[in-house]
Amino acid sequence: MKPFIHENFLLGNKTAEKLYHIYSENQPIIDFHCHLSPAMIDGDYQFTNLTQAWLEGDHYKWRAMRTNGVNEKYCTGNASDIEKFKKWAETVPAIAGNTLYHWTHLELLRYFNITELLSPSTATGIYEKASTLLQTKEFSTRSILRKMKAEVVCTTDDPTDNLEHHLKLKDTFEIQVLPTFRPDNVIKTEDPEKFKAYIKKLELVNGTEIRNFDALLEALDKRHGFFHEMGCRLSDHGLDRFYFVPFTSPEINRIFKKLIKEEIISSDEAEKYKTAVMLELCRLNHKRGWTQQFHVGAMRNSNARMFREMGPDTGWDSIGIAQDPLKISKFLSELDNKDQLTKTILYNLNPADNEMMITMAGNFNDGSSAAKVQYGAAWWFLDQKSGIEKHLKDIEALGLLRRFIGMVTDSRSFLSYPRHEYFRRLVCNFVGEEVEKGLIPDEEELLKSIIEGISYRNAKEYFSF
Q1: Are the C-beta atoms of residues 434 and 115 closer than 8 Å to each other?
Q2: What pairs with residue 236 in β-bridges?
Q3: CA-to-CA distance for 393 and 358, rounded, in angstroms?
Q4: How far apart, in whole angstroms, are the C-alpha atoms of residue 434 and residue 273?
Q5: Contact residues for 367 (Cβ-Cβ < 8 A; gap 6+)
Q6: Other CB atoms closer than 10 Å to residue 95's CB: what's the count?
Q7: Which CATH code is given to the segment(s) 14-46+149-463?
Q8: What is the pTM of this model?
Q9: Residue in 196, 199, 168 with CA at minimum distance from that of residue 183
Q10: Which of 198, 277, 414, 425 lies 20 to 30 Å from 248 when distance is taken between CA atoms?
């Protein structure tokens, strides 16, 4: 009987098989957006067991377990590691057909050479085999990245981070581990007390007082420059939506002073402040020649009770409303008008925005570089088989498939790298089907450039790490 994950998994025709095995399978990985811990890479961390490596911090799995009726004790609670794993194993058969099911078995195969399907009957054996391997040097965090042919890993870092682990990794690890500037906390105005605490943290790391908006911009510029010295060439902005409303400098200064006095500001004031800060951050990105990423459309922390109890990033988020194209257009135009629009990647979480985002990106490509403004990979809830296939179809129809810079893990798990394989197989199957239908020529150099480009080379050329 053929194993579930076999050499031609997801490859539905001979052309797809050829494209994957010749042009994609062995390409290195540039993971230009992830949430891996630089401290764990620096320390070459060793996991004790499969639960620690696979379930901790993984809100995809937690959501599936909760939906399957698993008590929170076995997700984020105080159950033992083996108990948590067995509850995950009980859940896996219920997600058959889901991309999470595919990822699960790809990861078991690629890391641990386990071909069995995970279920209650196989849970103990799989747990013991994988946990034993994880305790060997060949499964330390650095060894895992080597095993997956990672070439560049871009972590996600707050402007106040000292980047001590990135500094050490420069001289001790052959794989590039680079920081990404993620200044989201500076526009979180909903809780003035938390906002003021963050400004205090920014003051401390800079050694200067921040009493007005100009001082805030100087502090952010200083941190931006420090990140640049540490090899950072990317910023990332996780926003519910794009902001844009006209404002004046005196208005923004007054709003900022209200915030640091812990005063509540109006929704109109918040929009003005966020617009001003985001424009200035983008100007910094342009000044230093960085690429900026916008992840928009998530409705975060939807369950108020669980957010109070557990905090963010624990699996209580969903797809938000569609974006306002007028605000996106005005925001990007404001930068473009003054030649301050740097390379930009747009990611959306609502699939209703696909076509709008692709055509919006096309509005700001000026020929200065290939696909200067990019439509990013299918993200989060769209990072699944049908979402990726729609994503590819939409890019082919409205953009340039040849210039697409490909996949990221967007993950906190060191065992998530087979997601690149999953994506590459879907790309090769998509292009293979188009060839078989006669919609793309069966011409070797053309197909090679498309597949190698999306798998690896486009990102290599776009970022110039």
Answers
A1: no
A2: 293
A3: 11
A4: 47
A5: none
A6: 19
A7: 3.20.20.140
A8: 0.97
A9: 199
A10: 198
CA-nearest of 378, 389, 323, 329 to 352 is 323
Q: Where are the alpha helices (DSSP H) in 369-417?
A: 385-398
| Alpha-carbon gap, residue 85 to 56, rounded angstroms | 10
Distance CA 72, CA 84 (A): 10
CA pair distance 110, 52, nearest whole angstrom: 18
377 DSSP assignment: -
Domain with CATH 3.20.20.140 in the chain: 14-46+149-463
Q: Give start-end residues of each CATH 1.10.2020.10 domain in the chain.
A: 47-139
Cβ burial of 140 (10 Å; 0-12, 13-18, 19+) is buried
For the segment(s) 47-139, the CATH number from 3.30.450.20, 3.30.870.10, 1.25.40.10, 1.10.2020.10 is 1.10.2020.10
Residue 406 buriedness (CB in 10 A; 0-12 / 13-18 / 19+): buried
Residue-level pLDDT, tens digit, the chain, 465 residues? 789 999 999 999 999 999 999 999 999 999 999 999 999 999 999 999 999 999 999 999 999 999 999 999 999 999 999 999 999 999 999 999 999 999 999 999 999 999 999 999 999 999 999 999 999 999 999 999 999 999 999 999 999 999 999 999 999 999 999 999 999 999 999 999 999 999 999 999 999 999 999 999 999 999 999 999 999 999 999 999 999 999 999 999 999 999 999 999 999 999 999 999 999 999 999 999 999 999 999 999 999 999 999 998 899 999 999 999 999 999 999 999 999 999 999 999 999 999 999 999 999 999 999 999 999 999 999 999 999 999 999 999 999 999 999 999 999 999 999 999 999 999 999 999 999 999 999 999 999 999 999 999 999 999 988
Mapped onto helix, strand or coil, the DSSP state of residue 176 is strand
Q: Are 375 and 357 in contact (CB under 8 A)?
A: yes
